[in-house]
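sry for the spam today, last one i promise. C-alpha cells for design, 224 residues
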C-alpha cells in the first residue's frame, strides 16, 4: 500500500453475496509498486547508440538498417529474432518492406519514457504503428506483452531520448498478418461417363457432356 498506517472507515458492512461478504470503505486502497532501479550508465547516449554497442540486438538492428526505421524502445534480442525462422523475415526483407517497417514501428511506444513500473500500471499501450498491445502480468509478477505473452527481460535502460526494454520475442501487429502470402495451387479432375455411342456413329458429334460438366483444364489460384 502507499501508506500502510492510513486508517480507513467502513461505511457499509456485512453485505451478503453468493461467494462472500462485502464491506464498503470510504476511500480506495492503492497498491504502490516497488520502484525498479534504472540502468543509467549510458544515459548520455541515444537509444541507437546503446543498442549498437550491445551485441544482443545485432539481428534486430540489421532489420532496422534495412528499412531506415528509427531504433526501437523494445528490442528483441538475437535469439528472439532467430526464432522467426518460418521465412517471414526473409520475405519482408525482399518483398514486403512495408510490413517490415510496420513491424519495427510496433516496437516503439508512442510515449518514449515509460519505466517498468509505469508499464505495469497500464492495461495496454499504443505503438507507433497505431496498434494496441495489451499488458498482463505473469504469476511471478513479470510483465507480458500481447496475446502471446512476450516477456520483458532487461528493463529501465535509460537513454538520452527514452527508456529501453529488452523483450523475449517479436511483437507482430495484426495489420501485417498473415505475413507470408497464402498460395493455393490446386489441380483437380473428375471423370463422368456420358452416353455411350460407337466411334463411327454419325451421332458422335451430337453427343453432349452430362449436365454440370466443364472442360478439363489445369488451374491455379493464388491468394494474397
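last one done:
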Amino acid at each position: 500500500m502507499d501508506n500502510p498506517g492510513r486508517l480507513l472507515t467502513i461505511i457499509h458492512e456485512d453485505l451478503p453475496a453468493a461467494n462472500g461478504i462485502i464491506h464498503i470503505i470510504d476511500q480506495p486502497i492503492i497498491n504502490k509498486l516497488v520502484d525498479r532501479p534504472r540502468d543509467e550508465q549510458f544515459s548520455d547516449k541515444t537509444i541507437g547508440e546503446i543498442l549498437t554497442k550491445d551485441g544482443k540486438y545485432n539481428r534486430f538492428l540489421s532489420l532496422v538498417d534495412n528499412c531506415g526505421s528509427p531504433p526501437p524502445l523494445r528490442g528483441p534480442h538475437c535469439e528472439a529474432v532467430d526464432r522467426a525462422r518460418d521465412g517471414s523475415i526473409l520475405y519482408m526483407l525482399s518483398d514486403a518492406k512495408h510490413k517490415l517497417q510496420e513491424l519495427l514501428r510496433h516496437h516503439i511506444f508512442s510515449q518514449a519514457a515509460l519505466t517498468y513500473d509505469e508499464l505495469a500500471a497500464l492495461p495496454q499501450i499504443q505503438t507507433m504503428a497505431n496498434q494496441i498491445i495489451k499488458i498482463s502480468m505473469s504469476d511471478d509478477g513479470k510483465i507480458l506483452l500481447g496475446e502471446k505473452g512476450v516477456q520483458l527481460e532487461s528493463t529501465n535502460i535509460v537513454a538520452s531520448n527514452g527508456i529501453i526494454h529488452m523483450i523475449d520475442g517479436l511483437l507482430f501487429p495484426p495489420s501485417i498478418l498473415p505475413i507470408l502470402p497464402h498460395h493455393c495451387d490446386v489441380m483437380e479432375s473428375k471423370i463422368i461417363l456420358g452416353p455411350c455411342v460407337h466411334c463411327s456413329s454419325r451421332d458422335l458429334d451430337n453427343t453432349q457432356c452430362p449436365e454440370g460438366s466443364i472442360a478439363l483444364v489445369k488451374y491455379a489460384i493464388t491468394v494474397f
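The chain has six helices and eleven strands. ok im logging off now
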